[in-house]
Task: inverse folding
């Protein structure tokens, strides 16, 4: 029998809002596997919810970090250096684009909205990896969350699709840099899952229903699927895999129309 036992391992999860968050779904699996956890959340507004969520994880460390603030990132890793010394696993589950940038045509994206989306959704991974690097254990691993719109046009996803392309390319470049030390990094490309971030995407519910109908497994991607893949990609079970974007069954490999008979 193969068992994923992460007792003695330490993981930082960045980007948890509530129990639907994909970051939380990976955290729950890491906790079940025995890892010690730290969480970062964006602002004071989320503090109460994250405290409630983690109340049954007594050793959990909580940090408020806005990823656009380098000093807050520095303070986070300085504190973890003192408390833990090393970090084994890091989960980056953070993205943001102003709503108006996802409501019209991509061609109308303003400079400010483009920069905001790319900074929070893609550059933040580079900033986090850079600050974490000195602390990452030799067989450490990172995961981030991406979406199919990085590869193909998904109408209305607009600048977030472009940000996800930059994120996936960053995963490949970071894998090259971090690989020198034996640290791996991969991206999970998830089909539509109902979360706070997803529900703010125009047309999300239509896509959510469509995917279950056309996907090979006729299955709605959910938090358990993402949590399991996250656990696998962080654990030594995936020791030979780095720089990759791995899909959870989402139906995008199936053409959207049924050709029927001639
Ligand atoms: P979520 O709303 O639960 O998580 C998004 C998180 O990003 C929130 O916790 C938010 O506070 C954080 N965030 C935004 N701006 C930040 C900032 N400046 N500093 C720090 N944190 C910030 O939603 P989710 O769906 O769990 O999103 C997690 C990741 O999964 C995102 O990268 C998202 O694009 C990706 N993803 C989601 C789906 C889906 O259908 N839900 C599909 C594919 C990929």
Result:
């Amino acid at each position: 029998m193969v068992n994923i036992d992460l007792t003695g391992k330490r993981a930082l999860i960045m980007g948890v809002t509530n129990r639907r968050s994909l970051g939380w779904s990976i955290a729950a699996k890491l906790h079940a596997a025995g890892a010690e956890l730290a969480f970062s959340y964006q602002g004071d507004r989320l503090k109460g919810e994250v405290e409630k969520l983690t109340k049954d994880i007594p050793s959990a460390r909580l940090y408020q970090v806005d990823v656009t603030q380098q000093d807050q990132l520095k303070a986070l890793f300085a504190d973890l250096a003192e408390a833990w010394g090393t970090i084994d696993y890091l989960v980056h589950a953070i993205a943001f684009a102003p709503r108006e940038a996802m409501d019209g045509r991509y061609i109308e994206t303003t400079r400010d909205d483009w920069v905001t989306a790319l900074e929070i959704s893609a550059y933040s991974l580079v900033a986090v990896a850079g600050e974490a690097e000195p602390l990452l254990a030799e067989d450490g691993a990172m995961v981030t969350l991406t979406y199919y719109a990085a590869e193909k046009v998904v109408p209305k996803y607009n600048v977030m699709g472009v940000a996800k392309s930059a994120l996936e390319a960053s995963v490949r470049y970071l894998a090259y840099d971090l690989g020198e030390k034996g640290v791996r990094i991969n991206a999970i490309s998830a089909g539509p899952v109902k979360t706070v971030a997803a529900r703010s995407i125009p047309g999300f519910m239509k896509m959510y229903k469509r995917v279950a109908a056309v996907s090979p497994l006729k299955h709605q991607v959910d938090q358990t699927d993402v949590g399991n893949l996250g656990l696998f990609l962080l654990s030594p079970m995936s020791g030979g895999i780095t720089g990759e974007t791995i899909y959870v069954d989402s139906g995008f490999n199936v053409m959207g129309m049924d050709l029927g008979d001639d």
Observations:
- The chain has eight helices and seven strands.
- Strands lie at 10-14, 36-41, 61-64, 87-92, 136-146, 184-189, 245-247.
